Amino acid sequence: MHQDFLPPGIAVLTGAGISKESGIDTFRDDGGLWTRVNLEEVATVDAWFRDKKKVLDFYNETRRAFRAAHITPNEAHEALARLEREYEGEVTIITQNIDPLHEMAGSRKVIHMHGRDGEVRCMVCKTEFASDADLTPESVCPNCRSIGELRPNIVWFGEMPIHLDEIYEVLERCGLFIAIGTSGEVYPAAGFVLHVRRYRPRAHTIELNLEPTDNKALFHEHIYGPATKVVPPYVTRILKQGWR
Ligand code: NAD
User: Fold this and answer.
1) Are 151 and 123 in contact (CB under 8 A)?
2) Cα–Cα distance between 85 and 123 in angstroms, integer?
3) Positions in the chain whose pLDDT score sits under 50
4) Beta strands in 149-213 (DSSP E)
5) Which of the listed residues 14, 20, 21, 26 should we mutate to test ligand 1's pocket, taking the one with most ligand atoms within 8 A of CB?
6) Labelling 116: which of 14, 15, 31, 189 has CA 20 to 30 A away?
């Protein structure tokens, strides 16, 4: 089909809630990661400069636990991969998650705005590369040979998310904005729905979440329930009859 005649794009924002039923904890729910660890001590730039070993040990440990758990995508990730395969227009997933479950389910256009698990970045030369090796304050950058400057390629609290230019372009050409399993408390992601409403006043916006979020009033439509139960039928519905 010629580009000019493609139907409007679909932008999907996902958060920790979509991976919850695959066995990965969310941040804020009861029992979630941040109710058990102090984020100030492990997931901020300050923490990195204060105690690199503590930060790196935390990520080494969580990465090993994650690999050992053999986590797999669930029906919600799979439904979004089907949406991308079967919808004639553009489908882009903008995820706050660092896990690879969208890609494992078969989604191809995925933007990881908070970085990716299994990648490392050098604070000095900015080189990024895939690695599952444990990091220590003695680790050496294979590119610039700096010592103790390698860190997980994950956006910490207080840092700017990545790929924002690309994300705003996607939002500014979408006709449907879907937010799934995200609390609406973390900016700038929480502001994406307002951005869509401002730049695409005719676009439809919908929230699919376990429960109403702080952003509820900003969406035209809401469906509440576990992602594995609500996302697949919603995808079937819009593939069959559109979103109006
Ligand atoms: P959050 O923890 O703040 O909120 C998760 C949301 O998901 C909540 O609104 C909750 O009601 C909802 N939810 C919980 N279980 C659900 C389910 N089964 N189905 C549908 N919704 C469900 O998550 P967030 O808004 O994504 O927080 C942002 C930060 O958390 C991001 O930086 C993200 O990177 C990070 N995070 C990522 C992972 C991961 O990579 N899987 C895990 C935990 C946290």
Assistant:
1) yes
2) 37
3) 1
4) 150-154, 174-180, 204-209
5) 26
6) 31
Burial 101-126 (b: 16+ CB within 10 A, else e): bbbebebeebbbbbbbbebbbbeeee
Q: Whose CA is nearest to atom 36 of ligand 1?
A: 16
Indicate if 204 belongs to the active site. Answer: no
Place of tokens 């979004």: 80
Task: List all residues 6 or more positions away from 39 whose beta carbon is below 8 Å from its beta carbon.
Answer: 157
Determine which residue's CA is closest to atom 7 belonging to ligand 1: 17
- Identity of residue 74: N
Structure tokens at 236: 């079937």
Taking alpha carbons only, the member of 14, 19, 25 closest to residue 65 is 25
What 3-state DSSP class applies to 115?
A: strand
**pTM value surpassing 0.85:** yes
pLDDT in tens, 208-229: 999 999 999 999 999 999 999 9
The identity of residue 53, as a single letter, is: K
Cβ–ligand 1 distance for 57 under 6 Å, the answer no
Q: Which two tokens stand for residue 84?
A: 């991308």
CB 218 within 8 A of CB 13: no
- Between the CA of 209 and the centroid of ligand 1 the distance, in Å, is 10
Beta carbons within 10 angstroms of residue 80's beta carbon: 30
Q: What is the pLDDT of residue 199?
A: 96
